[in-house]
């Protein structure tokens, strides 16, 4: 009994502060998918090494089987945030398993012989995790362990619960109050879970060799698979992953709840609390997960375990269902408690099994001890949920509830019905979904959803951090400042590449072009020799000094290549002076420097090794003899990696004055149709930010230049360094070249998502470097 | 003979390019001073340890005696630059020897018994330097080795010499040409040195026990010292530091020059080339200083050795004499050569000795073999020098020559005459000069002359670098970027405290106040609780949240205390909004945080140790019952350490609107006369940059706060860190306090030159840290 025996709905109605906090809460999701090969066979490969030890990575582990990946989101304080985390994990895992796929159904794919199903392997072959899985294999068989699903963890916000406790004038501690609250919510969930199962059940279809004995109302299909006739969820049915006997617990008080479970353990029906396969569990993350631990520490959150993987959603669950489930739990909090003794519990189990096996037929439901029609039962629940949504004036939820009401009316709109309706067959249908989802994940590989406001370089490093199981704290989003931790090892990082591994002065050296050039030159590294002038007379007088070499005359700070004159061959004093005049018309200072013929390359040097090498090519299109330049630009800009404002790894090519000018200098207009194979440049400069192409040449360029870049980074003592080199011919060593710049904050997305070439996984390289991961 | 037998004056007249380069050259000075105690006794203390090993410090060594400091400037390309270097060395050495003084005369001070004069001590007691000095002591006696003087090293610019060689159509190599040139110049110098001696001789006075036998025309004076009657330079006389026999060399050609010296060595008259105590030497710094080395490598520069210390100049020599000497050498280059055989050499030696012993009587001089009057001889030389000055239209030089002409006419205007004219006596006079010069050096201790455009912190570190004998390269003056080197150990430094010893991320953490606060708070360190706002509306809406506490409103990244409002007591929404407006006018983000009562302290932590602690007191004056606040400010601003624009360690107190407002808040006006002892604040903020006082409390504040500062630096992994702590009562541990900021680029001049308290020598601490000097 709650302290003040008031109706909570009434209290909430009158307390706006409480009402505001009602939907505050903490969310966590755990999702399992088995890995399959391209034909839908269970993958027999080991858990990918990139994820590190499954004992240590908190986000990406295995469940029962080595082939069964479990993705665990961090605890989030909103549905959006937790869903983003799940989506990111889905994208990351999909990206990293490549030649394999994530099987999108709770029922297993094509399985090998029972003995060939691999149990998860741990560092310590005698670890508790391993031994427990071996026990499960013996006790229940391996195949049934491959049922995969989603666990939904939820807690109300502490502020809300404390405010509620005060409002109810409760004398008990907050923890005792929580125990009471969550027990009430759990009971309500047990009573009403049948409807959530109706909505989310998604395992009516399975393969003939999965079950050892046929399920009730099992039917064979033309597509060589089996279906539960009118069924919704094999996984949640009595043939699913359940305790052998129904183990009812006592919901009267927290103490009685604990005592009742203790009885089952004492009787040997279950080994420990975690073997009690209830659809909802009371949990505390700060304990050893033992019953005694829970009894001692009290309930921190509840875990819902009955959600099937939704094969129609890339992430196995929709955001709508997350909201609906939260509303269901809140409704449980606010509703008056109904009795839930053994009989009621048996009836609720029966409700669940009827939905699982026969849900599409809308079987009768037991509600408050009476058997009533499915429609009546559904209406009763949805009505009480609507009251809560109305109370908080939550239009989105009301709309959502209207949709579920529609699904309640029309079983053919359930997920299960849609799965059964698909004619492709169990394996082909799910493999098609898996492949589509992989494509989507790869298209989003460059970004971390929910963090798109941060720089792409930062998103890439954060993704690698998740991949490798590091703890992440964002310290200052706007500044791209974050902290990573692996056990006791902490690293602070700003903008992906500003780390503890470079000294402050090293960054400052690179920031200062004069000092950088001086140090490089002292170390025998070619830099463009040159001189600054802010006085045209002095510049004119330097003619003799430069007359015998190819030079560039340019304004000191200019963009778009304006005001630049290049003299590759002999030139007169008049040519020279004309060039000075032009340059000075753009800036009060000009530079005359040696002209180095060639293309611009970015060498990314990390830890004294080449991490990636890009050739930067100015924005361009290649003619096909059919389309205009303008059309060719449009076509090239369709690439999903091309965006604007640095939100994507490549930038769209613009059709601005600079591009038009560049075309006209070559005798083109935007409406011209270049010949097939004709390369047309839209820019003089090769920056990626003005639509340039990034071509990965890491494996092509001569090692001479690689050694040069490594040396340049070394002389300024830099461990993460972008070295820009002009190279005349990339495959010929010791050709004309010059280092034009060292960058202390090199972009990494250009190497991870180049226009041409492979993903060099710079985020991984940085993290491995920072955390000494071999 | 020069290649084309032309008159060089004529060539120069016709070649403007050559004329422009004529005064280009490289200069170096070496100056010796013996150290004395406050009574004028030779100091018997060891060479100060702060200068490191005399074998290694290229700027500050000892000469013959352990008590005889030698200052060696780096090679500079202008008279101004070399003079600045000398002045800096003089200031540095003076500052560091403190309870001792630099004796400002070439003749020694009061000496102990011969056997107690300490010969310079080296790491290796058998080192060549030590053995050579022991040889000198045996050969010449120790006392005479204490003659101190100035060596002037000069070379023409290579560009000039090469252009001259080409103009003269010389077929010889540049080096052969140089050998010829410098031999010509040296010969001219030998012929005319008597006049330079007349101008610069400054050792006519000495103490009775100095010479073992009386000098000619020696007279006793009432002041218990001895004088050369009409004499100018004991040091340059025949009783000075000379070879026992006149060793003439052959100036006909470089080969003959070498051969003639070899003869003296072979005959045993001298031990090696360096024992040939000629007034001018031909040298090459890239050799082992042997005759064979010089013969092989050729002449690089010439060294003039006859300059006495000028006791009327703090630096022992005037800039005018540096210019005059250069002009003399140039005149030697351009003049037609006169014969200089043995007879001429003997006559030139006689000239020198006559000036040294009897110069004030203007003795006859031998010029071109004939004995003529002093006036005639001086006129001849000055006229030829004037021709050179006229050729180059150098008005300054012409003016300088007019001055020297005047001195030539009036012997009483010579330095020597002025020394003789002083009635205080040899020791008292020179001790008074020494003390005056020390005061001057200490007043300039905060700056490095010639580098005043760089930050004070940088100047201080550079001074310490000179003190400790490190090689210095200024890489980017405007950016205060420089490089230090000690043997193979190179350190790059920007702005004194940005070094290789801090990681890049550590600086970035400190730069970000939000991140810093978060990390400090996580580590249990008290920080002001607060909040950031980048939106003024959101900031306004936070009024209720902060209304009941004392707060500070400030721009997120601020300097010099600008834009900060402090509310210690109740304040209105209007006050609050006004403060927001002010803060937002300085930055797009602002911080509102709890105000911590107390004073602001800056803890400078270097290498995990406290380097200095300052209390910062807002600009203030203390009443005397007589003067107005305005007058008290003027008086306080007279402190030579107070300046403007951060050019000095303290800033002048202004009388602007902020100060007037602050006064009015206390009920004062500028024209009020505060009572005696009444402290009146002119500023709320305690920044030194707005006239605040810096009070060194390193030895006063409770260790609790010192440990706190060290811990704060440690948690952000910073090795050079300014920790700002508000402390309520500095002697009481664990009192109210909060760390308000960590600074990654802390000012160091405030600890080195505080308003009250001692110089904490932060430059030394930084260099010792960077170079692992114990």
From TrEMBL, chains A, B:
It comes from the Bacteria. It comes from Listeria booriae. Keywords: ATP-binding, Glutathione biosynthesis, Ligase, Magnesium, Manganese, Metal-binding, Multifunctional enzyme, Nucleotide-binding. Pfam families: ATP-grasp_6, Glu_cys_ligase. Residues 517-771 form the ATP-grasp domain. This is Glutathione biosynthesis bifunctional protein GshAB. The keyword Electron transport does not apply. It catalyses: L-cysteine + L-glutamate + ATP = gamma-L-glutamyl-L-cysteine + ADP + phosphate + H(+); gamma-L-glutamyl-L-cysteine + glycine + ATP = glutathione + ADP + phosphate + H(+). Monomer. Synthesizes glutathione from L-glutamate and L-cysteine via gamma-L-glutamyl-L-cysteine. Its cofactor is Mn(2+); Mg(2+). Pathway: Sulfur metabolism; glutathione biosynthesis; glutathione from L-cysteine and L-glutamate: step 1/2; Sulfur metabolism; glutathione biosynthesis; glutathione from L-cysteine and L-glutamate: step 2/2. GO terms for molecular function: ATP binding; glutamate-cysteine ligase activity; glutathione synthase activity; metal ion binding. InterPro entries: ATP-grasp, ATP_grasp_subdomain_1, Gln_synth/guanido_kin_cat_dom, Glu_cys_ligase, Glut_biosynth, Glut_cys_ligase, GshAB_ATP-grasp. The keyword Coiled coil does not apply. Residues 1-356 are annotated as: Glutamate--cysteine ligase. In the N-terminal section; belongs to the glutamate--cysteine ligase type 1 family. Type 2 subfamily. Its EC number is 6.3.2.2, 6.3.2.3. Gene3D superfamilies: 3.30.590.20, ATP-grasp fold, A domain, ATP-grasp fold, B domain. PANTHER family: GLUTAMATE--CYSTEINE LIGASE. One of its GO terms (cellular component) is cytosol.
């Amino acid at each position: 009994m709650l302290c003040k025996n008031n109706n909570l709905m009434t209290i909430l109605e009158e307390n706006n502060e409480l009402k505001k906090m009602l939907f505050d809460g903490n969310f966590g999701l755990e999702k399992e998918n088995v890995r399959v090969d391209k034909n839908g066979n269970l993958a027999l490969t080991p858990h990918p090494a990139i994820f590190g030890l499954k004992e240590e990575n908190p986000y990406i582990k295995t469940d029962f089987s080595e082939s069964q990946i479990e993705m665990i989101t961090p605890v989030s304080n909103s549905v959006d945030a937790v869903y983003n985390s799940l989506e990111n994990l889905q994208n990351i895992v999909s990206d990293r398993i490549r030649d394999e796929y994530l099987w999108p159904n709770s029922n297993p794919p094509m399985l090998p012989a029972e003995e060939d199903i691999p149990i998860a392997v741990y560092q310590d072959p005698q670890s508790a995790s391993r031994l427990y899985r071996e026990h499960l294999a013996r006790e229940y068989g391996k195949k049934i362990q491959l049922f995969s699903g989603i666990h939904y963890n939820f807690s109300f916000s502490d502020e809300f619960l404390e405010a509620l406790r005060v409002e109810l004038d409760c004398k008990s501690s907050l923890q005792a109050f929580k125990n009471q609250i969550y027990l009430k919510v759990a009971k309500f969930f047990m009573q009403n879970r049948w409807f959530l199962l109706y909505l989310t059940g998604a395992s009516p279809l399975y393969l003939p060799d999965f079950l050892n004995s046929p399920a009730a109302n099992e039917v064979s299909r033309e597509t060589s698979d089996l279906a539960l006739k009118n069924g919704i969820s094999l996984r949640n049915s009595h043939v699913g992953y359940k305790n052998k006997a129904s183990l009812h617990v006592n919901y009267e008080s927290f103490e009685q709840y604990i005592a009742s479970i203790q009885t089952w353990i004492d009787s040997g029906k279950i080994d420990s609390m975690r073997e009690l396969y209830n659809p909802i569990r009371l949990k505390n993350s700060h304990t050893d997960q033992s019953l005694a631990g829970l009894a001692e520490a009290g309930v921190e959150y509840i875990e819902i375990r009955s959600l099937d993987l939704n094969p129609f959603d890339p992430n196995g669950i929709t955001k709508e269902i997350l909201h609906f489930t939260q509303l269901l739990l809140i409704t449980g909090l606010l509703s008056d408690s109904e009795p839930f003794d053994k009989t009621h519990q048996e009836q609720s189990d029966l409700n669940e099994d009827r939905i699982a096996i026969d849900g599409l037929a809308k079987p009768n439901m037991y509600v408050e001890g009476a058997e009533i029609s499915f429609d009546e039962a559904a209406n009763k629940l949805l009505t009480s949920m609507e009251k809560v949504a109305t109370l908080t004036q939550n239009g989105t939820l009301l709309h959502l509830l209207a949709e579920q009401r529609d699904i309640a009316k029309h079983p053919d709109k359930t997920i299960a019905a849609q799965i059964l309706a698909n004619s492709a067959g169990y394996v082909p249908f799910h493999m098609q979904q898996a492949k589509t989802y992989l494509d989507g994940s790869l298209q989003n590989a460059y970004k971390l959803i929910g963090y798109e406001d941060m720089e792409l370089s930062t998103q890439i490093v954060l993704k690698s951090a998740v991949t490798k199981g590091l703890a992440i704290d964002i310290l200052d989003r706007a500044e791209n400042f974050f902290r990573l931790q692996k056990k006791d090892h902490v690293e602070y990082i700003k903008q992906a590449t500003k780390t503890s591994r470079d000294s402050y002065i090293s960054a400052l050296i690179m920031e200062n072009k004069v000092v950088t050039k001086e140090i490089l030159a002292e170390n025998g590294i070619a830099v463009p020799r040159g001189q600054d002038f802010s006085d045209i007379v002095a510049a004119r007088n330097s003619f003799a000094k430069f007359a015998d070499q190819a030079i560039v005359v340019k304004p000191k700070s200019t963009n778009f290549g304006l005001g630049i004159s290049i003299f590759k061959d002999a030139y007169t004093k008049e040519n020279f002076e004309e060039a000075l005049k032009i340059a000075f018309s753009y800036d009060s200072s000009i530079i005359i420097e040696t002209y180095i013929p060639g293309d611009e390359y970015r060498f990314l040097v990390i830890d004294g090794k080449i991490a990636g090498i890009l050739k930067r090519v100015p924005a361009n299109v290649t003619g096909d003899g059919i389309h205009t330049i303008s059309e060719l630009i449009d076509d090239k800009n369709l690439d999903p990696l091309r965006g604007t404002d640095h939100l994507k790894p490549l930038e769209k090519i613009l059709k601005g004055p600079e591009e038009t000018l560049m075309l006209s200098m070559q005798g083109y207009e935007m409406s011209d149709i270049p010949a097939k194979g004709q390369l047309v440049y839209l820019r003089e400069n090769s920056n990626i930010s003005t639509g340039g192409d990034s071509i990965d040449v890491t494996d092509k360029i001569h090692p001479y230049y690689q050694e040069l870049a490594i040396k340049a980074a070394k002389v300024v003592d830099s461990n993460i360094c972008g070295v820009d080199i002009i190279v005349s011919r990339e495959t010929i060593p010791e050709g004309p070249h010059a280092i034009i710049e060292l960058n202390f904050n090199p972009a990494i997305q250009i190497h991870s998502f180049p226009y041409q070439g492979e993903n060099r996984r710079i985020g991984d390289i940085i993290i491995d470097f920072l955390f000494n991961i071999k």
